[in-house]
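About this split. The held-out portion is used to measure sequence recovery: a designer receives only the structure tokens and must propose an amino acid at every position. Recovery is the fraction of positions where the proposal matches the reference. Here is one held-out target exactly as it appears in the evaluation file.
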């Protein structure tokens, strides 16, 4: 122990004198992957970008994270990340890149933090490998290049980890309080997801601190109480404020932050119960596509170009994606089917699992010979911390009923930490001929290369056979050569070890670059040759030349002769059915995704990889609604006679681009998905009489929880002729709401 402490002190002294030159290129790689071309994303995630636009206008909107400038409804997440984004937009101006910048910097910061955390105990080379693995984990830059929350969340949790490690080293209770308080801050970023690391914090503090059990329990109890207080601080303020003095809490059914935290953003993610309007039953998977989460809210890349060959159309039936009960192995949103090997299934494995076999062998090596009762070395204690982070989170994603691919960034820190620490540990065991442990290195290389071949195999049409065959062949050769040369000690063996790590990181590096190469998607970020679709799975066929992700629907007021293509999602024209998406009237494929034909049973298709390349210097990938119908906007502006709201619409997808474009209030009557029970007929009548709103754009989507309101609007309004506001250009910008109807209501 004394020897280890002296090494740490020497390392600290050395660090003060010089910069680690090996870390510099790693940071530059992370900076490139996280920052390059973020300026091409004009709208980012339009739902969140609209909120930042609104939050810039008043402290009231800023504090509550109001979606619209009128303070009608909030977004469906706590405000901390959006406070940071708003400050960034205030400093640098309101742009897509200025709201993305904090997350991009957080992604780079996470790489640096992991280097610091791993290096101190496992050595400088372990820190370097861990930092590089973190930088090259594909889902990390894919998420960090958007204004979604998760990159900032992971950075905050790593800051909390640094504080906890410092608390153990210094034996100061103040650092324990700071670490748990930081988790409370993270809760105010994405609610219960922040608590996924708590098992690691509790286990590590209990095992690593040399104090009495009485003090351990007292300290952890106090720290937990502080964490809970910080966690609910904003929620208590909001929930205790009179409902008529604040916006409605978006995506909740009782206008409560706490209900949102423990329901919609909490337990429902595990159970998959994303029902709306207070219903207790689980929605069909196709309904979940519309209502389950804000991250699904507007999935497309609106100016991605698509091309299709005849052989793609022949194989389309094998590439479609269904909801889980449709029998497709990719599962809903390409998250696979629950089970112990879910992280190795298509759609998830290529986002996070490239190094998992090597990590498993590393865990075996790091814990080899450990006795349950101890004593434990510093390396074993910190390995236990990363294991207690990795396992519960991996179990959650293996069984969860609903999540998105980019949530997997939560697994990146422990995987990267084990990759770095394990590389050094296994190499040491290999060089020392440490019995069966010396076989862990070549075995880890071989199995990891095999998994990477499996991960890449569905993409052979996109990336070719060469890289797949290359990784497989080199992995086998290097593993065999290392096994054969196990008894030899010379520089050649050292080079072979380095070469093996380079091979294992080569394809993750390419995958991490795909959002830059092919274009990303700010709604459902995912890496891969089809990254602009936001679906992250193997490439498939898209028959419409403008289709990407869920694209194929037009913005309010536009029309397109191809809008009824079999592969496009259409707005429902049936009843609201509690907010669930319905097939268009006359469709025979009841229960399938809207827009399906008898040939494809309503299955949803993802775009071909060729559709994901950027076609312009500005990507308006704010989702299906990332464009504004200029003719509609001009009509509404010209005929506004002092109303507070430019117009009202069913959900956020139609409202967001107009808020971003004009900064004027647009009412999303039912919140994000149109399912929030915010508005009543009597309240709407009052608003109309007060002159707050008179125009209503109804597309037929998102009516759950407000069907009475929409029925009343249709029965008491004057329909505005489409010739006055609807664009007829077939090249109109693409958006979410299809060809709806504009109504006007005036009451005295």
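Reference sequence for scoring:
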């Amino acid at each position: 122990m004394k020897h280890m402490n002296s090494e740490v002190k020497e390392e600290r002294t050395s660090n003060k004198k010089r910069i680690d030159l090996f870390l510099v290129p790693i940071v530059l790689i992370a900076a490139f992957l996280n920052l390059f071309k973020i300026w091409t994303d004009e709208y980012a995630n339009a739902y969140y970008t609209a909120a930042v636009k609104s939050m810039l206008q008043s402290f009231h909107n800023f504090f509550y994270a109001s979606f619209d400038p009128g303070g009608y409804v909030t977004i469906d997440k706590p405000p901390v990340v959006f406070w940071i984004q708003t400050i960034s937009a205030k400093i640098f101006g309101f742009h897509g890149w200025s709201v993305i910048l904090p997350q991009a910097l957080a992604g780079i910061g996470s790489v640096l933090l992991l280097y610091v955390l791993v290096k101190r105990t496992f050595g400088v080379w372990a820190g370097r490998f861990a930092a590089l693995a973190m930088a090259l984990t594909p889902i990390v830059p894919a998420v960090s290049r958007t204004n979604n929350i998760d990159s900032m969340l992971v950075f905050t949790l790593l800051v909390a980890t640094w504080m906890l490690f410092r608390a153990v080293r210094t034996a100061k209770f103040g650092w324990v309080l700071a670490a748990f308080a930081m988790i409370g801050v993270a809760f105010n970023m994405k609610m219960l997801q922040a608590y996924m690391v708590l098992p690691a914090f509790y286990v590590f503090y209990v095992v690593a601190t040399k104090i009495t059990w009485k003090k351990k329990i007292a300290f952890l109890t106090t720290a937990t109480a502080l964490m809970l207080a910080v966690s609910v601080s904003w929620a208590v303020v909001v929930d205790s404020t009179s409902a008529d003095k604040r916006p409605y809490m978006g995506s909740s059914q009782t206008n409560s932050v706490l209900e949102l935290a423990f329901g919609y953003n909490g337990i429902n993610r595990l159970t998959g119960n994303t029902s709306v309007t207070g219903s207790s039953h689980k929605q069909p998977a196709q309904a979940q596509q519309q209502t389950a989460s804000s991250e699904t809210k507007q999935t497309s890349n609106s100016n991605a170009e698509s091309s299709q060959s005849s052989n793609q159309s022949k194989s389309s039936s094998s590439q479609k994606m269904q909801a889980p009960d449709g029998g497709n192995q990719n599962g809903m949103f390409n998250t696979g089917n629950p089970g112990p090997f879910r992280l190795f299934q298509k759609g998830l494995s290529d986002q996070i699992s490239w190094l998992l076999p090597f990590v498993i062998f590393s865990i075996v090596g790091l814990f080899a010979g450990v006795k349950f009762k101890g004593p434990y070395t510093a390396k074993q204690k910190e390995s236990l911390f990363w294991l207690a982070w990795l396992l519960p989170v991996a179990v959650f994603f293996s069984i969860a009923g609903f999540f998105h691919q980019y949530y997997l960034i939560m697994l990146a820190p422990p995987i990267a930490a084990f990759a770095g620490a394990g590389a050094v540990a296994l190499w040491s065991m290999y060089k020392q001929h440490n019995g069966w442990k010396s076989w862990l290195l070549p075995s880890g290389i071989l199995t990891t290369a095999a998994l990477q071949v499996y991960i890449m195999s569905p993409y052979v049409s996109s990336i070719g056979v060469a890289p797949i065959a290359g990784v497989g062949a080199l992995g086998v050769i290097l593993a065999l050569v290392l096994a054969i040369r196990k008894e030899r000690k010379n520089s050649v063996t050292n080079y072979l070890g380095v070469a093996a790590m380079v091979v294992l990181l080569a394809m993750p590096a390419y995958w991490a670059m795909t959002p830059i190469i092919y274009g990303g998607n700010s709604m459902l970020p995912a890496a891969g040759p089809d990254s602009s679709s936001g679906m992250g799975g193997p490439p498939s066929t898209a028959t419409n030349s403008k289709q990407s992700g869920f694209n194929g629907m037009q913005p309010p007021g536009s029309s397109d002769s191809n809008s009824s293509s079999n592969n496009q999602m259409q707005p429902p024209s049936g009843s609201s059915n509690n907010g669930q998406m319905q097939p268009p009237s006359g469709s025979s494929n009841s229960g399938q995704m809207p827009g399906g034909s008898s040939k494809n049973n309503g299955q949803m298709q993802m775009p071909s990889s060729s559709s994901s390349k950027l076609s312009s210097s500005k990507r308006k990938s704010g989702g299906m609604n990332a464009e504004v119908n200029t003719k509609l906007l001009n009509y509404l502006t010209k005929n506004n006679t002092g109303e507070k709201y430019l117009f009202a619409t069913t959900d956020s997808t139609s409202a967001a681009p107009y808020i971003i474009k004009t900064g004027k209030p647009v009412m999303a009557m039912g919140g994000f998905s149109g399912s929030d029970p915010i508005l009543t007929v009597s309240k709407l009548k009052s608003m109309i009489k007060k002159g707050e709103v008179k125009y209503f754009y109804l597309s037929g989507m998102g009516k759950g929880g407000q069907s009475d309101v929409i029925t009343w609007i249709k029965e008491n309004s004057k329909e505005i002729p489409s010739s006055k506001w609807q664009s007829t250009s077939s090249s109109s910008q693409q958006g979410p709401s299809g060809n709806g109807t504009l109504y006007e209501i005036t009451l005295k």
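Annotator remark: The beta strands are 648-649, 667-668, 695-698, 718-719, 741-744.
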